[in-house]
Amino acid sequence: MSERKALLILHGKQALNEAVRAAVESKREQGWELAVRLTWEAGDAQRLVEEALADGFTKIIAGGGDGTLRDIAEALAGHPRKASLVLLPLGTANDFSRAAGIPLEPAEALDLLDVTPSHIDLGAVGGQIFLNMATGGFGSQVTANTSEDLKKVLGGAAYLFTGLSRFSELHAAYGELQGPDFHWSGELLALGIGNGRQAGGGHELCPQATVDDGLLDISILPAPQELVGTLKTLLSDGFGLDNMFVRARLPWVEIKASEGLYINLDGEPLEGDSMRFEALPAALQVHLPTNSPLLSGKPPVSRPD
After folding, report:
1. Residues 183-195 pLDDT 10s
2. 107 and 142: one domain?
3. Residues 136 and 233 grouped into a single domain
4. Shared domain check, 242 and 135
5. Number of domains in the chain
6. Where in the sequence numbering do the catalytic residues fall?
7. Which residues, at least 6 apart from 165, have a Cβ–Cβ distance to it below 8 Å?
8. CA dihedral over 183, 267, 66, 85, signed as positive or negative
9. How far is it between the farthest Cα atoms of the chain?
10. In the chain, what is the straight-line distance between the N-terminal and C-terminal CA atoms, in Å?
């Protein structure tokens, strides 16, 4: 199959997106053979990836929001090194793409077809894969409960609006996190387990995360009462929300929560009182900008045989 041939798996809601149509036509004029398939219901992304690989496609474009990207990345992860992934961000938040420096203009995003793909990590929990981030606590509920109509009107600001309107519901939950040479327990308001850096429409929960280090970045926002003892230090360092986080970088982490934990997995809800998250090194090939902030600039951690 020609090296300049790719399949675009496009979220059904974007079928009439004129900017996408124009970008596809432009790449075709440049000599690319681009086929387009639409998703309509749950399971379509998995099926279309399987069909694309069976047809010999070695480049797949994921056109949609963070949930669509996750679904396609998960499907590709089951077939290591069979095809590389190009991200065409068309959602409201586009958290992974924004952090990675992927252009939001469709034509510019498709230009990444010509960039050599990078081997990146994925996150895994309970048999499910995530490309960007798992969030827990209040922040994940805000993301899950932000209406589609509000997103259309306010874009990424919809998440902030929803969070402010539900501020009275904010409450802490007891949790315990255990990993290699790491242990933390206490009341927490929010939790981020990042392969990428941001979630919920631009909130940087894991600002130093890279996608090729074989590790997950852990960010814990303790309940306010646990910060009282460190208030003097926080003020002297320049008080801000970022100073309140407890952070770690681990190949895996186990979490136990007394009340059960609600997790948002790149838009996919997950609940449980005991979970194990782990990094899957070099699990996917993705066409990222050569200067992407999510690339460490170091040789990627090798994928285990």
Report:
1. 999 888 778 999 9
2. no
3. yes
4. yes
5. 2
6. 268
7. none
8. positive
9. 63
10. 27
